[in-house]
Amino acid sequence: MSRTLPKSLEVTPSAARLTGSLRDIGYDFHTAIADLVDNSVAANATRVDVEIAFDPGESYVTISDDGDGMSANGLVEALRYGTRRAYGRGDLGRFGLGLKTASLSQCRRLTVASRRSASVARISTRTLDLDLIEEWDEWLIVDDEPTELLRRATSALGEGPGTVVIWQKLDRVLAGRQAETGWGRRRMAGLAQKTAQHLRMVFHRFISGLPDGRQLVLSVNGEKLKPWDPFAVDELATVSFPPQLFELEVGGTTGEVAMRGFVLPPKNKFSSPAEFEELSGPLKWNRQQGLYIYRANRMVQFGGWSGLRAVDEHTKLARASLDFDTDLDEAFQINVAKMRVNIPPSLKQMLERPVHELCVTADDTYRKASRSKPAATTSDRRQVDLGDVGVSLRAAAMEAGQLGALTQAFEVLKVRNPDLWKALGLDR
């Protein structure tokens, strides 16, 4: 039985005021572009090309894909704030705001062109322009006359389905006179570099290829991006822990969270100094340690221990992946920009022990690499050698999934032969 609507008034929010407020939802330039790449992935794109172009007074950004594309009606719906479309499990979208809020956080004019049909070359184009919305204070989507930029940006759509997003009036990127200066040119070049670094990290699993066969070719200003895998799995000296699954139930929602720990090699064990520097990441070694959290294979948070422990020089080689699917979005309180989550308290409790074990191994690896080996007495050399044995035993037990049994054995050894227990480095 439907409920009778009580006596009421419809209060439509001010379009000018609300669109202005939503510009400050928390995006950086590179996170805004990453949110648009999410849309391309959701549309089954196999290729996404980002162009960040400086043109005095008329700089622009385009994000083009070869995905499924949208019909004219679908395009209008995509430009609606809080689109009515439903999001399924594993869908990278969530709030129905990303295309608009991400784009308009950086520019004042957003144009989207899309082709849906493979057999009919019909391209639909619509524009959101904040200047027009402020002038009329209405939720306006317009169909403007084609420009040279639009014709050039949509040329690839002549070959098949896909979508092109164009940012113009980049007031949050190049303000005032900066839009026409050499400083502005350098800023756009710097943003392109930072964006490439961010995308190759956030979408590294998609670029490498997922188990289900999906693979994404991603480029920035014509340069194809190579994946940046934070776990150095191709390095022979990397220690990888067995995956662990945790069942999480929050507010009636049940799902699984997977964790896998890695201890990266110290500098002298890397295949080359260049690779060691490459794996230091955008935040460099100390701040890159910690949890790398993935939502549906897309990285949403990187580095830091999310309150589980403090960042420490001695554990800078420790990194761990933490995976959850979109059915746990509310539990993790995923934000609109999809770059920050909160780990549920119940999960934090379950993670304490494996994170501690990971960091113990990382600490041992760091100290072993840092330790000098002077010519000393036989007993000194014996202690160093036994310390190496302790590290190797722990690492081997972790890879074999027998760390619990080894830990129990070490506890017995601590009681029966405390001197040997210390010599093995188990007191650290």
Share in helix: 25-40%
The class by helix and strand makeup works out as alpha+beta
Number of strands: 13
Total DSSP helices: 15
The radius of gyration is: 26 Å
Low-confidence stretches: 372-385
If you had to describe this structure to a student in words, what would you say it looks like?
With about 425 residues, this protein is of the alpha+beta class. The chain folds into 3 domains: about 15-225, Histidine kinase-like ATPase, C-terminal domain (Heat Shock Protein 90, 2-Layer Sandwich); about 240-360, Ribosomal Protein S5, domain 2 (2-Layer Sandwich); about 370-425. The chain has helices spanning about 15-20, 30-40, 70-80, 100-105, 130-135, 150-155, 180-200, 205-210, 275-280, 285-290, 330, 345-370, 380-400, 405-415, 420-425; strands at about 45-55, 60-65, 110-115, 125-130, 160-170, 215-220, 225, 240, 245-250, 255-265, 290-295, 300, 320-325. The strands form 2 sheets. The chain has a 7-stranded mixed β-sheet with strand order 4-3-5-2-1-6-7. Strands 8, 9, 10, 11, 12 and 13 form a 6-stranded mixed β-sheet that branches. About 35% of the residues are buried.
